[in-house]
Amino acid sequence: MKAIQFNYHLPRYILTKIAGRFSSKVYWDTRFSCLQFNEQHEQDLPNENWVKVKVKYSGICGSDLNLIFLNDSPATSPYVSFPFTIGHEIVGVVTEVGANVNNIGKGQRIVVDPILSCEAREIENPCHPCQEQNYSLCERKAEGSLSPGLLTGACRDTGGGWSSSFVAHKSQVFPLPDEVNDLNGVMVEPLSCALHSVMRNQPNKGDTVLVIGGGVIGICIIAAIRALDLPCKIVSLVKYEFQGKLASYYGADEIIYLTRSDYVNELVKEINGSVLSPLFGAKVIEGGADLVFECVGKKQSINDALRFTRNGGKVVLLGLAGIMNGIDWTTIWLNELDVKGSFAYSTEAYQGERVRTFAIAIQLIKEGKVDLSPMITHRFPLDDYKGALKAATSKSSRDAVKVVFEP
C-alpha cells in the first residue's frame, strides 16, 4: 500500500530548513525532504486486542503542517518513532478483528481516538493521569508494548491515516451511528479537541469569549460552545472573509477581521475594553474578554490573547505554539491572568458522568447539535498529496478550511 511518512534524517532536516526559506514546497516536493511517499506493507495486528482499519477519509491537521514545515519543538521528539505514517483524523471501516475485541465487528464504520496512552500500550500499572482518565496527560507515551508515539500518526508501529490502512487498539475505537456520515466522522477528532478545551474551561453565563483564529480548531471551538448550549457572547477574530462566514454560521456573535488596520479598536468595542497608548509599542488594552481561546500559535495571536483578556481572566492555548521570541508576558503577572494549555482529548464531566470526549462529540453530531461537514472544502487522493498540501497551505487563495485525503 502507499503511505505518506515522515522520517527524520539530520542532513535532510538541515537542507530542508535552509532551502525552505526560499520556497515552501521544498518541505514536500523534493527528494531531499523528510516527507516520503512510498510503498509500505500493511501492519499486522500487534496482538488479539487490536483491529485493522481501512481508511475512508483522513484529515490534514495544523499539527501535521507544523511537522512538515519542521516547526515542532524538539521537546516533542522523544514521543515519536521514525519512520511514521502521518494522519490522526480518521474515519474508516474495520477489516480485521482480534480475538479479544468484543464490541467491534468487521465491516463496522468507526473513528479512532489516536492517543496512545497506557491502555493502548498495555501497561499493567497505568500512570496516575491514566488512572484518573486523563489520557492526554499520559506519562508513559514512550513505554510499553509500542514504540514511542504521542498518538496514532506519530508511532511507527500503528501506521496512520495518510495511507489505506492502519491498526488501532480496541480502547481507541468508537463505532459511528448511521446518523453520523463519513464527512462528520472525520471531523470528530477536531471537534473533540475543541470540546476538551471548552469543557475543561467552560465560560460562565453572560461571559464574553474571544476566539482567536478562523482555522478548523477556532471554528470548532465556536461550534462546541453552541452545541453545549453555553450562554455567552462569542467574538471571533479571523483573517479571511470565508473564515468569518463560517464563524458566524456556527454561532459567533461578532466577527472582527485581523487584516483591517483598525482591528484593535473594533475588537475592543466588542469585548468591553478601552485602548491606552504606551510610550512605544503595541496598544495597551484595559478590560477585555473574560475567556480567550488562542487557536493559532503565532507570536501575534499569543500577544493578542494576553492583552485582550480582562484582569483576572483566562487564556487557553490550543494553537500549538512552540519556541518563539517576542512574546510580552507582562499582562500575565500585571493582570493576574490564568493561562492554561489544552492538548487533544480525554474524558469530560458530562451529564453527571465521566465520558470519553470522542463519545460526546459523536453524540452531539448524532443529535443534530452540530454538523461539521460544510468545513470539508477539499478532498484529494493520496497520490496527489502535493496538491493537498498546497491547498492546505494556501487558505486565502483557495478558501480552504479542512483538506482531507480520500485513499
Verbal overview:
The chain contains 13 helices and 20 strands. The protein is an alpha/beta fold and 407 residues long. The chain folds into 2 domains: 2-187 and 376-405, Medium-chain alcohol dehydrogenases, catalytic domain (Quinone Oxidoreductase, Chain A, domain 1, Alpha-Beta Complex); 190-341, Rossmann fold. The strands form 5 sheets. Strands 3, 5, 6, 7, 8, 19 and 20 form a 7-stranded mixed β-sheet that branches. It has a 6-stranded parallel β-sheet with strand order 11-10-9-14-15-16, sandwiched between helices. Strand 10 (233-238), helix 7 (241-249) and strand 11 (254-257) form a beta-alpha-beta unit. Helix 5 packs across helix 6 (216-227) and helix 5 (188-200) crosses helix 11 (357-366).
Short recap of the structure:
With 407 residues, the protein is an alpha/beta fold. The protein folds into 2 domains: 2-187 and 376-405, Quinone Oxidoreductase, Chain A, domain 1 (Alpha-Beta Complex), CATH 3.90.180; 190-341, NAD(P)-binding Rossmann-like Domain (Rossmann fold).
SSE arrangement:
Elements: E1 2-6, H1 10-19, E2 35-39, E3 50-59, H2 62-68, E4 84-85, E5 90-97, E6 109-112, H3 128-131, E7 165-169, E8 173-175, H4 182-185, H5 188-200, E9 208-212, H6 216-227, E10 233-238, H7 241-249, E11 254-257, H8 263-270, E12 273-276, E13 284-287, E14 289-294, H9 299-307, E15 309-317, H10 330-334, E16 338-341, E17 347-350, E18 353-356, H11 357-366, E19 376-380, H12 385-392, H13 395-398, E20 402-405
Parallel strand pairs: 9-10, 9-14, 10-11, 14-15, 15-16, 19-20
Antiparallel strand pairs: 1-2, 1-4, 3-5, 3-7, 3-20, 5-6, 6-8, 12-13, 17-18
Helix pairs in contact: 5-6, 5-11
